[in-house]
Amino acid sequence: MNLKYSAAVSLIVALGGFLMGFDASVISGVVKFIEPQFDLSKIQLGWAVSCLTLTATLAMMLAGPVSDRFGRRSVLKCAAALYFISALGSAIAPNFLLLVLARMIGGIGVGASLIIAPMYIAEIAPPKLRGTMVSFNQLNIVLGISVAFFTNYLILQLGKSTAGWASWLQFDAYNWRWMLGLEAIPALLYFFLLFFVPRSPRWLAMNGLDDEALQVMTKAVGESKAKEQLVNIARSIQSSKSKERISVKELFKPSLKLVLIIGVVIAITQQITGINSVFFYAPMIFEQTGIGTDASFSQAILVGLTNLVFTLFAIWLIDKVGRKPLLVFGLFGIAVSMFVLSASFGNATYQLSEKSIAECSVFIEPSQLNEMKNIVFESDIEFNNALLSSVGEQTFKEHQSEFIAKAISINPWLVLAGIIGFVASFAISIGPVMWVLFSELFPNRVRGLAISFVGLINSGVSFIVQLAFPWEQMNLGNATTFLIYGIFGALGLVFVIVMLPETKGKSLEELEVILVKE
Predict the structure, then answer these.
(1) Digit-coded pLDDT (tens) for 414-449
(2) Major facilitator superfamily (MFS) profile domain: which residues (predicted)?
(3) CA geometry: angle at 512 spanning 511 and 516, to 5°?
(4) CB of 55 within 8 A of CB of 104?
(5) Residue 237 class from Cβ within 10 Å (0-12 exposed, 13-18 middle, 19+ buried)?
(6) Which residues contact 135 (CB under 8 A, 6 or more apart)?
(7) Distances from the Cα of 203 to the Cαs of 66, 216, 240, 342, 352, in angstroms?
(8) What is the crossing angle of helices 3-13 and 15-25, to 10°?
């Protein structure tokens, strides 16, 4: 068995996950600047973040069948090109509409790579190491997220630099454009590296290219195991030849009821607990505690590092401990962390004293805040509404974080602990485990379509969560928003305990016999 070969190929393919993570989370540093620049409403702000996920959702539904027709590698090359176009287009967008269109182009690449990369890796990896290798994709997603948080903070600091080269590159004037444009570099690298990746052995076998399939599989797992696995693949393909062309209706047959229910519930749970609200709005959430812009961006880096470290733990544990124990542990931590966040914001109070109002004179006439002087607001909703009424919408958008910093009474370290606990719990469990399960649960003949279907649901829920978050913050408040996420985490925990079987250490064909009842 040539582990170096299969690992190297898997790592290259998983770079699509890096681009996905970077592309998705880089917007977290952008929202603060585009809201006042383009005079966006809260729903428009949510749309700027979530539009990428909308096209990703549509791409996911097509990615599996398209890859069955043209090959996994070809689809990934197209995704890399779309990432590159999106990065440049987003960076130079002169208005909100073109920014959204450019991000939607990137969303197509996100949807394709998010589905096809783990599928490809599962089809080339040895069964005993499949969980670890498929998790390479999740590892690269979190690397991308971490790098995006770091580069956002770096660009913010370079904007304050007095160095001649930093001034020449105008990091201050074009900070958010630099944040978005940097992705073009790894996108170009990914495109060229994919030329060194072979076509998927399972795809080759499905298309009658048995000799090439054997060559690739032999490099990955050794000659004897390659022949054995190809026999199993051929048997699976042969058994499905007499059946009609696969359609979505096939997924709803009684024989697939169990795996479909598991796939759908896990897909919903991963997103409805609020992970992308944290990743895509991290600085905004931290600013709600009154720590200021620089500190909020630096704490976002800590979120990214936590995500990376605990994803590494998940990769180390997933084939040792198993999928189900990690999910149980992680979902429990998710629910508890969200309840901590809800309680922290629920106990916060807001009061603008005469001194704090005077300190706001740098960006507003203090007399505008006289009606709020020394009034104690028991919730962020009450405070924000009063502030909006007093200073107007434009000033509110530009300086909300400064007003909150002057008024709030909260324990910001408890909020940070809740966010870090949530991200750690997600990263060690449902983050990487979901995609491993998706690559394992469904039989060969419907795997491409089934993964696209549950991926569609996952991405659709993600879109709704991202779109609604700024509106929820403004209209429901942080406490209620995080409480809702915690309740969904608790419900997901109960489902996993009751319904999910363990899948580790079994070949894809063995799992088909266990889970699919004809």
Answers:
(1) 988 999 999 999 999 998 888 788 777 777 777 777
(2) 9-504
(3) 120
(4) yes
(5) middle
(6) 311, 314, 315, 318, 432, 435, 436
(7) 12, 11, 15, 47, 64
(8) 30
CB distance 86 to 23 below 8 Å: yes
- Arithmetic mean of pLDDT, 47-68: 85
Q: Which residues contact 492 (CB under 8 A, 6 or more apart)?
A: 265, 266, 269, 273, 331, 334, 430
CB burial of residue 50 (10 Å; 0-12, 13-18, 19+): buried
Structure tokens at 432: 């990487």
End-to-end alpha-carbon separation of the chain, Å?
34
Give the closest residue to 396 by CA, choosing from 148, 138, 45.
45
pLDDT one-digit tens code per residue, 209-256: 777 877 777 776 677 777 777 777 777 666 655 555 666 777 777 777
Residues in the chain: 518
Phi, psi of 14 (to 5 degrees): -70, -10
Residues 241-251: b if buried by 16+ CB within 10 A, e if exposed:
eeeeebeeebb
Q: Are 419 and 303 in contact (CB under 8 A)?
A: yes
- What are the phi and psi torsion angles at 160 (to 5°)? -100, -5
Rounded distance, CA 254 to CA 258, Å? Answer: 8
Classify the C-alpha dihedral 212-217-218-223 as positive or negative.
negative
Q: Give the residue among 268, 303, 283 at the shortest CA–CA distance from 473.
A: 283
Q: In whole angstroms, how far apart are CA 185 and each of 28, 88, 182, 190?
A: 19, 10, 6, 9
**Is residue 503 exposed (0-12), middle (13-18) or buried (19+ Cβ within 10 Å)?**
buried
Q: Helix (H, G, I), strand (E, B), or coil: what is residue 319?
A: coil
With beta carbons less than 8 A apart as the criterion, state whether 134 and 121 touch: yes
Structure tokens at 158: 């370079």
